[in-house]
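// run 5 | inverse folding | seed 20
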């Protein structure tokens, strides 16, 4: 009987929690090309905060390994690829990490091995892009010498309740037998259960529309918020009133960033346009959501002018830089777009976020500061951009204390009592 030895390729927000979950039942090696990431993990440090120091050290003590050496995963028979799938500056899919990781796996691939992809892609990438690379590098034949599977990641960064094993998992395989094998593998650790899709393409499509649907729904709420703002109506009050009907989907307006909702739809629209179909609704939703940062910055400037604040050289504080609350993830955070817009107006910008460190910041058009409540500096405007728990504990008087006369408090997340303006 073959004992499964698992290699997880890519140890970010998706790969590390998955490797940890598998390590409780299997021999697992986590592989990442970033040596600094491997060094941190071997010292018990997970900068994504998905695992505690205790969890990392317990996993190491139980036999889980972390390595950047490809030879150390050569004896594995199951390879799970969890690398990022970003977009480029033109919003086109960038498959470079997926291609590079497939090349790496191909170098150690052996007869009867299974390669499972978790990265979000458009339907067809696994079999039409990744598999040919595996064949070319390994010299093995697909579905004769080695096999593939696809099980889309379902990680919610920062969520300590809905962890990887507690979220139902979609699975698939390149043959009926392998599909069952892949499903059984995940079923052994996913307590929430699994859903076996009929094909890899169906599984790929199911993932990409999860976040596309959310993106479109949020775009509708964002557009309504813009309309109601022009009317002078409180959007939150409107939503609460509408939500009294049992079948109303209650969503709130806001920034749409991160590595999922703001990125995944472009994978689907890219493929659709390749096939000659223009997905107007999805692209329209992307345009609306991408425009929210500019709108918020402009609204901030208008409120400053209305309160007799000088715009050029004004001191503006932005509270929160991550793409969502209570996590250190700044990938594709739209808060940075607000900073860029304010910078164009000549504002002097400070930013504060208790969940990240200065070393995580690459942008240089603002000053990253420690707790502004412990400083004597006063601000002409304060933008509450992220709903961190630390910010929810603050009172309106706290914001007043760090503001100049006639405070301008811009509340994007609906957590400030009686703000100057709320999205």
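// decoded
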């Amino acid at each position: 009987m073959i004992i499964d030895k698992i290699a997880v390729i890519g140890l970010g927000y998706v790969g590390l929690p998955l490797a940890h979950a598998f390590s409780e039942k299997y021999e697992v090696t986590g592989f990442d090309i970033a040596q600094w990431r491997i060094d941190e993990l071997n010292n018990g440090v997970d900068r994504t905060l998905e695992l505690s120091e205790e969890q990392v050290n317990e996993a190491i003590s139980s036999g889980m390994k972390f390595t950047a050496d490809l030879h150390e995963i050569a004896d594995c028979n199951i390879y799970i690829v969890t690398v990022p799938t970003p977009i480029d500056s033109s919003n086109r899919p960038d498959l470079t990490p997926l291609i590079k990781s497939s090349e790496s796996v191909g170098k150690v691939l052996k007869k009867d091995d299974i390669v499972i992809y978790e990265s979000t892609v458009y339907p067809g990438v696994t079999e039409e892009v990744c598999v040919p690379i595996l064949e070319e590098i390994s010299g093995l034949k697909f579905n004769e010498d080695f096999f593939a599977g696809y099980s889309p990641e379902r990680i919610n960064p920062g969520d300590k309740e809905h962890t990887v094993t507690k979220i139902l998992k979609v699975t698939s395989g390149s043959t009926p037998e392998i599909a069952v094998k892949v499903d059984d593998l995940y079923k052994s650790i996913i307590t929430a259960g699994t859903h076996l899709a009929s094909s890899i393409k169906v599984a790929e499509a199911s993932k990409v529309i999860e976040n596309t649907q959310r993106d479109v729904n949020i775009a509708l709420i964002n557009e309504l918020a813009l309309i109601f703002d022009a009317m002078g109506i409180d959007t939150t009050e409107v939503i609460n009133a509408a939500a009294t009907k049992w079948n109303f989907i209650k969503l709130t307006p806001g920034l749409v960033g991160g590595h999922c909702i703001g990125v995944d739809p472009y994978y689907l629209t890219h493929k659709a346009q390749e096939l000659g179909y223009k997905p107007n609704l999805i692209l329209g939703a992307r345009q609306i959501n991408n425009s929210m940062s500019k709108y918020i910055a402009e609204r901030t400037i208008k409120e400053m002018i209305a309160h007799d604040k000088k715009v050029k050289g004004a001191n503006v504080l932005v509270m929160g830089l991550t793409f969502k609350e209570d996590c250190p993830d700044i990938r594709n955070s739209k808060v940075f777009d607000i900073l860029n817009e304010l910078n164009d107006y000549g504002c002097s910008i400070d930013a504060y976020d208790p969940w990240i460190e200065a070393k995580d910041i690459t942008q240089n058009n603002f000053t990253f500061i420690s707790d502004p409540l412990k400083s004597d500096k006063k601000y002409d405007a304060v933008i509450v951009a992220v709903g961190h728990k630390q910010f929810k504990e603050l009172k309106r008087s706290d914001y007043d204390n760090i503001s100049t006369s006639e405070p301008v408090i811009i509340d994007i997340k609906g957590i400030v009592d009686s703000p100057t303006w709320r999205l």
